[in-house]
Amino acid sequence: MVAQALDRIERADPHLCAFVEVWGEEALRRAGEVDGRLDRRGTDPSLSLAGVPVAVKGRHGRRTAGPLLAAGAVAVGATSAPGPGTPWQTWGLGARGRTVNPWRADRTPGGSSAGAAAAVAAGLVPLATGGDGAGSVRIPAAWCGVAGLKTTSGRLPSGDRTGLAVPGVLARTAADAELWWRVVSEDRAPAQAALPVTAVWSADLGFAGPDPEPVALARAAVERLEAAGVVRLVRPRMPLRLTDPGPAWLALRTPGAEPAGADLAGAERVRAENNRRLAALFADAELLLTPTAPTAPHGHEGPGERYSTSLTWAFNLSGHPALSLPAGFGGDGCPAGLQLVAPHRRETLLLAVAREAETRVKG
User: pLDDT per residue over 165-200, tens digit each?
Assistant: First the structure.
């Protein structure tokens, strides 16, 4: 598997620019070591990712990939993230230039896990690690047409002092994402859910103003899930109306440089009020469903005045786990995503629903 992955990277990456480094010789040597362990031990449950080629986010990504490597995965390279002079919201910068969306080279794959999403979507690797501080796993997953999971804040180790950024994964399938979760969380139980799962739909979280097309695509995906018996929409006792988390997120992320009128105390008040509203919603339903991104993928010049994070960063502020699933294609030929949000520590619920969606739903 590793040799084939390296061959795919060699052929495709000059166009995609998804990698900043490729560790070919080292990866082949590591694959041989894993094969040797299997030959000596036979079936080894501790090697659940034996020989699986994975990509890690950024040049220092192996520091957080220890559990994957211990389970037998082979790191084949470091994926692109924004480089110097590149706004973090927009695109990645690979070794050969800007990272492109595999579906349209004139569009961004999203950020900041840009190379990770592009590499998975192009079939170069089945799994890539990511980090999600405002939507940095979920937005690239949506715009590249793959699955992207953001974990519950504080559940896995993170070097982010603000607590907003947490580990995540990009994967071709929900089953692959579940394998990653079992390894990094040491939660060995299969992801299960009693279907249909009750869910609340929100097109805009009460403030976001998304474009009509990504809303329509996400809503159509929800209707397919309903028809397949995966979810059942319910009406909450109170409509969900979150306060725009943007100013609070910015204040917490960059203390002392917050926008006018925002301060840390005010940010915590917004967080507390939004948490109260989300708790009320999750008292009525198991999931919250929204579009993942408010727009289609933009060009490499950037998003302009619109925040691509408007539907995702609320859950970095609140700490809830969230997952983006492919939701079809827009008129421009680019993918869109459906975001699933669950109560804290319910990653397995998200993964179970995502797996059932892939199994039962066509289109």
Answer: 999 999 999 999 999 999 999 887 778 899 999 999
- What band does 42 get if pLDDT is binned at 50, 70 and 90? low
What's the CA angle centered on 30, arms 26 and 32, to 5 degrees?
A: 120
Q: What is the pTM for the complete model shown?
A: 0.95
Catalytic position from the list 57, 113, 150, 318: 57
Residue 224 tokens, joined: 């397919």
Annotation says 136 is catalytic: yes
Q: Report d(CA 283, CA 197) in Å as an integer.
A: 13
Residue 151 DSSP one-character state: P
Catalytic residue from among 80, 112, 153, 158: 112
Q: Beta strand pairing status for 287-291 and 335-341?
A: antiparallel
112 a catalytic residue: yes
Q: How far apart are CA 104 and CA 16, in angstroms?
A: 10
57 noted as active-site residue: yes
Q: Which residues pair with 129 in a beta bridge?
A: 169
- Report how far residue 205's alpha carbon sits from residue 241's, in angstroms, rounded to the nearest whole number: 6
Q: Do the strands 127-132 and 231-233 form a parallel or antiparallel pair, or are they unpaired? A: unpaired
Catalytic residue among 46, 48, 113, 136: 136
- Collapse the DSSP code of 83 into the 3-class scheme (helix H, G, I; strand E, B; otherwise coil) and give the result: coil
- pLDDT tens for each residue of 202-251: 999 999 999 999 999 999 999 999 999 999 999 999 999 999 999 999 99
